[in-house]
């Protein structure tokens, strides 16, 4: 089963929140996006999830923008909450045990129902080799967000001008991303509004895809600007995503590092 452990004595209230779930798909774009959102908004970690189907992992704090003296740890399943925007994020930092995706999804959605979330938004990515019409109608080098809706979620293509994933391509696109497929089916089965935000990409330097996905999530979730940032000067600025602040852990990525220790390379 999936068990939630609160970070404080007062358990958080998730009622009518939107739950954002990243998927461990190509390029890990979903997880990188949650890192960006949590770091930029300075979201508090309100708890942890424990499930026997997810490999355990622990590391030093991955999100804090300044060194922490209290020795905070990051674990495999963490929960962050944006109370002002009524959005909750789960960050998954370890893979599901082989052939245990179905069991994990079943456990996770039992917790989702008990917590009374109103909608699930899956942040996923698809191997660019599986594109059907992307190269025909869009700049193949542009990062275009696509989406899939189900369970009563409202299509928003006219509002954001995002293309829906092509008709009939859902099974093919998520063939190797069984968690996405199973979670989306679980939402439809339970009558829970669900949306998949996805980007075509390949494994490699996926930081630009994470920034593009964060922009899409900002618009889809109708987020306000972070309270720590300067207030937007106009309505036009308010409608634009904030300046994303990568977390400390990203400083070790080769495409983000400004310097390196030359002694490591002889």
UniProtKB/TrEMBL annotation:
<dbReference type="GO" id="GO:0005634">
    <property type="term" value="C:nucleus"/>
</dbReference>
<dbReference type="InterPro" id="IPR019151">
    <property type="entry name" value="Proteasome_assmbl_chaperone_2"/>
</dbReference>
<dbReference type="GO" id="GO:0043248">
    <property type="term" value="P:proteasome assembly"/>
</dbReference>
<protein>
    <recommendedName>
        <fullName>Proteasome assembly chaperone 2</fullName>
    </recommendedName>
</protein>
<keyword id="KW-0143">Chaperone</keyword>
<dbReference type="InterPro" id="IPR038389">
    <property type="entry name" value="PSMG2_sf"/>
</dbReference>
<dbReference type="Pfam" id="PF09754">
    <property type="entry name" value="PAC2"/>
</dbReference>
<dbReference type="GO" id="GO:0005829">
    <property type="term" value="C:cytosol"/>
</dbReference>
<keyword id="KW-0647">Proteasome</keyword>
<comment type="function">
    <text>Chaperone protein which promotes assembly of the 20S proteasome as part of a heterodimer with PSMG1.</text>
</comment>
<comment type="similarity">
    <text>Belongs to the PSMG2 family.</text>
</comment>
<comment type="subunit">
    <text>Forms a heterodimer with PSMG1.</text>
</comment>
<dbReference type="GO" id="GO:0000502">
    <property type="term" value="C:proteasome complex"/>
</dbReference>
<dbReference type="InterPro" id="IPR016562">
    <property type="entry name" value="Proteasome_assmbl_chp_2_euk"/>
</dbReference>
């Amino acid at each position: 089963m999936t068990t939630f452990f609160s970070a404080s004595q007062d358990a958080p209230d998730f009622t009518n929140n939107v739950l954002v779930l990243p998927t461990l798909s190509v390029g890990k774009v979903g997880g990188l996006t949650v890192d960006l959102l949590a770091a930029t908004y300075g979201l508090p970690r309100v708890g942890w999830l424990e499930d026997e189907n997810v490999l355990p992992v622990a590391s030093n704090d991955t999100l804090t923008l300044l060194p922490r003296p209290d020795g905070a740890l990051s674990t495999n399943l963490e929960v962050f909450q944006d109370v002002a925007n009524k959005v909750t994020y789960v960050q998954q930092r370890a893979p599901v045990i082989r052939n245990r995706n179905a069991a994990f999804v079943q456990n996770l959605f039992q917790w989702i129902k008990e917590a009374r979330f109103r909608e699930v938004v899956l942040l996923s990515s698809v191997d660019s080799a599986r594109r059907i019409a992307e190269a025909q109608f869009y700049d193949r080098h542009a990062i275009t967000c696509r989406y899939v809706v189900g369970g009563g979620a409202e299509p928003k293509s006219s509002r954001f001008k995002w293309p829906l994933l092509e008709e009939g391509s859902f099974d093919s696109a998520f063939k190797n991303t069984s968690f996405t497929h199973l979670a989306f089916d679980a939402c439809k089965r339970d009558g829970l509004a669900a949306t998949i935000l996805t980007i075509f990409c390949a494994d490699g330097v996926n930081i630009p895809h994470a920034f593009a996905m964060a922009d899409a999530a900002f618009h889809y979730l109708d987020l306000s600007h972070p309270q720590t940032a300067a207030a937007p000067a106009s309505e036009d600025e308010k409608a634009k995503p904030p300046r994303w602040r990568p977390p400390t852990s990203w400083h070790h990525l080769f495409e983000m590092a400004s310097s390196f220790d030359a002694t490591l390379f002889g």
